[in-house]
Amino acid sequence: MSSSIRITKPYEVVERALELSTADGCVVIADEGSSANLRWAGNALTTNGVTRGRTLTVIATVDGKEGTASGVVSRSAVTADDLEPLVRAAEAAARGAGPAEDAQQLVTGIPASPHFTDAPAETSSAVFADFAPALGEAFARAREGGRELYGFANHELVSTYVGTSTGLRLRHDQPNGTLEVNAKSPDRQRSAWAGRSTRDFKDVDPTVLDAELAVRLGWAERKIDLPAGRYETLLPPTAVADLLIYQMWSAAARDAVEGRTVFSKPGGGTRLGEKLSGLPLSLRSDPNAPGLESAPFVIAHSSGDDASVFDNGLPVPATEWIADGHLNRLSTTRHTAGLTGMQLSPGFGNLILDAGGEKSLEEMVAATERGLLLTCLWYIREVDPATLLLTGLTRDGVYLVENGQVVGEVNNFRFNESPVDLLSRASEAGRTEKTLPREWSDWFTRAAMPALRIPDFNMSSVSKGV
């Protein structure tokens, strides 16, 4: 072995950790990541850089008279000298813990990934080879138009290697790119935002975003004050994504069975099979969805009601969470599937909402007699888990639509809404398109959503200074 893990291949680290293990079972996860980024302000690049790093997670399982216990230890920047102490720390944690409630036999029988022994995939500044010149063109157009662009582009590539004492040798390479751009008027009184998610920066054009933002800054030249209240509201795909991602984070089967979530049925049981929307909504996850590809097997660094370290390597199938408007699945591990009697439905790496709509957001605006058009939501927080009531703020542009035309920008609002309630009240869904959730983009970026028309979105109070 080399004197430093950082210059050895990740699969070798996984194999060595498994060799060192004296536990009854062992799972080793090596996450090898690299990232490249660009940042800009006032129509000029400010910084750029490339980073690399590795995190190693060791999960030890120990069989005892009362059951199987697990111990999990994760560390970054681990050297070869640190490897054995890391394995021993995981084993000590397992031996000092009580039986794990989610204990299962470690997964077996999954064919090895064909490139398990290859070097990790890496990103570099070359990912911006076509994007950077287009960004320069966007800067020039913005200067000519009297606006300033601020923002960043970030690309990450993480190669995850999973090895187990039961023979699993799996690997997944996950690219993840985000682009966020703010346009501001020179006096800083007007601001607009646009964002995109991408796997490789070949399908995003900053000049297109600049043109979109120029239109929005133009809308904002006229200011209109509106009071709090319920308004017909067009939620763009990014806002729909932020709300439904939170809904899925609250969709664990066990929590529902125990009466703790919006998916619990009053008096006992769950709302599985219940109609949630009058629209023919399909909410699904699919590891092989084009442009939204995610890990086809479970990668669990810790256990919870929606994940189990014992399930590492378990295949993740395509799953329809809502089918034709009806609640179809809740998320389960092998343990919680057994507890609840529900189908095994491991977590999700992407989220796609489709209702068969064909209209663009612009066409939905044109069909609006009077209503609000949002840009995005932020600072979303849970108020009541029993109804999944969320609160948050609008940001970077709320626009008034009258007779199919945007007539000006209105003040920001605080909202109080449940995404489950919104689905039940939605009167129209537009065309599904790939989108970047703004609030949750640090944790979840692979989403495709339509715009939704809500007849009575609850703007609970006016938000000043946002």
Describe the structure.
With 466 residues, the protein is an alpha+beta fold. Helices cover 20% and strands 37% of the residues. The strands form 3 sheets. The protein has a 6-stranded antiparallel beta sheet. It starts with 9 loop residues before the first helix and ends with a strand. Mean pLDDT is 96; it is low at 1-7.
Short précis:
With 466 residues, this protein is α+β, with helices and mostly antiparallel strands. Helix content is 20%, strand content 37%.
What is the fold's blueprint, element by element?
Layout: H1 10-20, E1 25-41, E2 44-64, E3 67-76, H2 80-95, H3 131-144, E4 148-164, E5 169-184, E6 191-198, H4 206-219, E7 223-224, E8 229-235, H5 237-249, H6 253-257, E9 282-285, E10 319-323, E11 326-327, H7 334-340, E12 351-354, H8 361-366, E13 370-384, E14 389-402, E15 405-410, E16 412-417, H9 419-425, E17 428-429, E18 433-435, E19 447-449, E20 452-463
